[in-house]
Amino acid sequence: MLVDVTIFVAVVTIFVVVVTIFVVVVTIFVAVVTIFVVVVTIFVVVVTIFVAVVTIFVVVVTIFVVVVTIFVVVVAIFVVVATIIVAVVTFVVSHVLRSRQALARKARNKLNPSSPVAIDRSIAIVRSQCFM
Q: Is 0.90 surpassed by the pTM of this model?
């Protein structure tokens, strides 16, 4: 009977040792999984910070593009206004120059009736009267 009790105690001791080894292995596994979770959490935090920095950069670039676009639109409006002003000034100046040239031509013709223009006009008047 003492042998039976000794064998039983030995079996129970072996069982306790096996369970203890199993608990140690499970504890090591839980520690490894915990370390993995901590590493993944750190990675997620780093990626989140990176995404935040990239988002801030995109917002800054977008604001810059909007400001440049507004500047380009303002410059385009100034160019259009300047083009209209130049066109109006060119039209007025050319009209004034034409009318001054016409007045100068009339004055020259009155002062110099033998000028080629006056002679051509006289010939045209004579021809028109001949064919009447």
A: no
Please, what's the b/e burial string for 9-21 (b: 16 or more CB within 10 A of its CB; e: otherwise)? eeeeeeeeeeeee
Cβ-contact 109, 122 below 8 angstroms: no
DSSP 8-state assignment for residue 114:
T
State which H helix or E strand residue 34 sits in: helix 2-111
Angle at 116 between CA 110 and CA 120, to 5 degrees: 90
Beta strands in the chain, from DSSP E residues, in sequence order: none
Asked if 118 and 109 count as a contact pair (C-beta separation under 8 A), the reply is yes
- Rg over alpha carbons for the chain, rounded to the nearest Å, is 53
Q: Please enumerate in sequence order all residues whose Cβ is within 8 A of that of 117, keeping only pairs 6 or more positions apart, or say none.
A: 105, 108, 109
Taking a C-beta distance cutoff of 8 angstroms, is the pair 109, 117 a contact? yes
Q: Give exposure, 86-95, as e/b (b: 16+ Cβ within 10 Å).
A: eeeeeeeeee
Q: Using one digit for the tens of pLDDT, what is the confidence trace for 5-55? A: 889 999 999 999 999 999 999 999 999 999 999 999 999 999 999 999 999
